[in-house]
Amino acid sequence: MTVRTFLTALSLAAVVAPAMASSVIHPATTEMGYTTHPEHAQAGKSRDQVLVEMEQSKSDGLWQYHRFGAPVPVKGTASTRDEVLADLERSQKHPSWALRRVGAPVPSVPAP
User: Fold this and answer.
1) Is residue 36 within a helix (H) or strand (E), and if so which, with residue range?
2) Gap between the Cα atoms of 42 and 23, Å rounded
3) Which residue from 25, 45, 91, 92 lies 20 to 30 Å from 7 (Cα-Cα)?
4) Residue 63: CB partners within 8 Å, gap ≥ 6?
5) Element (H, E) at 25
6) Would you state the torsion angle of the CA atoms of residues 80, 81, 85, 91, taken in this order, to the nearest 10 degrees?
7) How many CA atoms lie within 13 A of 71 on its CB side?
8) What is the SS3 assignment for 49-73?
């Protein structure tokens, strides 16, 4: 093992060790591979806080989306067909349109 590899491994261990010490599960050289330490768990939200958030979500009408993991619709004004077409035409005039439409990486080009 070279000195550089050893120093790299040592520095990574020094960075990761504090993060591992604050978690509930710690690695171990046992058959299971880890040990649990519930006393290291950090306090989360209280039951009352969760219930208040759930009631707020239900009153907003967003609960039906959160319940199934569906994306929440964005509230705002919808664009008209003419606005969308004007935006498309403006985008097509941009110098990098041919690359962007096929998903190629594009260097930053200032907008005209």
Assistant:
1) strand 34-36
2) 8
3) 25
4) 54, 57
5) strand 25-27
6) 50
7) 3
8) HHHHHHHHHHHHCCHHHHHHCCCCC
